[in-house]
Specification:
Length: 345
């Protein structure tokens, strides 16, 4: 028999807590019995991932840019672009005939038709968390402009925007860059999130993400940063230590529909969040990525709420995580949020 306790009944000091993600339904373990202090996650002694500027392929690009954005461009002056977007030289997906789904026995497959682009910022070493707001803003503007362009491709069903920082994140080049990939299917992680938000909306007639935002803003325990249009917090069911989510306060289902003010604001929220991680944890490896509604002409995903997620590489999956899909975090999101909240950037 299950006993549903209220927040007032919450048991503190237990060896661990098993928390459920409100959207996906996934379970995570917060191992309070072997909890670490925030400073235990500092990347002490880690050698920074740096490659020589002279051999960097992004320093002397010969490819035609799909998009170039400059800082403080003045009429009559040739200002070197701060952000360039180019086609990936080694794409995972390429333009072609729209996917035809094939059967091989009980299995299904299709060709990797889509688009794969690279968003490159000019500075060879400074990551988004070390940039000024305007510099980070140009990167986010590039995300949105190229998203809108790729969206016109009738072969693409979902557009993934992501950034790998450090060798442990999967980055093969140290020069800061993000990637945009348009693919012919809806990824399983997105599909699960879409389903979870749809189920909640059907039952409660409210956006589940908006409900979380309202609670986190009032509760404040997991709040990390806030500006005019965005809220940054550590998820209640954090999959790993120092996980961060960045949500627009107003309900917007599609990233490409974000307003001018929201683009400025999310760039600030992303820059501050990454700066806090950089400074507070001594430049850990991390991935950040966009979760947004799939491309849809019928507006069927109005219940969804786009956002960015940041996942620092603070742990390694072992047998339990691989065998169960349940991740273990050794710091509570409340303690992680308090630590990051107090980091000045």
């Amino acid at each position: 028999m299950f006993y549903e306790a209220s927040d007032n009944d919450h048991k503190h000091g237990s060896f661990s807590e098993v928390r459920q993600d409100l959207v996906s339904g996934d379970w995570v373990v917060i191992a309070t019995g072997r909890a670490k202090r925030p400073h235990d996650f500092l990347q002490e002694g880690k050698k920074a991932f740096r490659q020589p500027k002279r051999t960097c392929p992004f320093e002397n690009l010969h490819e035609n840019a799909l998009l170039s954005l400059s800082l403080g461009a003045e009429r009559g002056k040739n200002i070197k672009p701060w952000v360039k977007v180019v086609v990936n030289k080694f794409p995972a997906f390429q333009r072609g005939v729209c996917s035809i789904f094939h059967k091989t026995g009980p299995y299904q497959w299709t060709d990797g038709v889509g688009q794969h682009e690279v968003v490159i910022t000019r500075d060879h070493e400074r990551s988004l968390g070390q940039m000024a707001d305007l510099e980070a803003e140009l990167a986010v503007r590039a995300y949105q402009e190229r998203y809108r362009a790729i969206k016109q491709d009738e072969c693409v069903r979902y557009i993934s925007i992501f950034h790998n920082h450090g060798r442990g994140s999967g980055a093969t080049l140290s020069h800061p860059h993000s990637q945009i990939i348009g693919i012919p299917v809806i990824p399983s992680d997105i599909a699960r999130s879409i389903r979870g938000s749809a189920v909640y909306y059907e039952e409660h007639k409210e956006c589940v993400h908006c409900v979380m935002l309202k609670f986190e803003k009032n509760d404040k325990k997991r709040l990390i940063y806030e500006n005019d249009h965005f809220l940054v917090f550590a998820p209640f069911a954090s999959r790993l230590a120092f996980e961060i989510r960045i949500y627009p306060k107003n309900h917007v289902s599609h990233f490409e529909d974000a307003s001018e003010a929201e683009i400025v604001s999310v760039a600030n929220a992303l820059r501050v969040s990454l700066g806090k991680i950089f400074k507070g944890l001594n430049n850990p490896d991390y991935n950040f990525f966009l979760h947004t509604s799939p491309i849809d002409k019928l507006n069927s995903f109005r219940h969804y709420h786009w956002h960015f997620e940041i996942l620092p590489k603070t742990s390694i999956w072992a047998g339990f995580e691989i065998g169960t899909g349940i991740e273990i975090s050794t710091i509570t999101p409340e303690n992680a949020a308090e630590f990051l909240r107090n980091i000045k950037v």
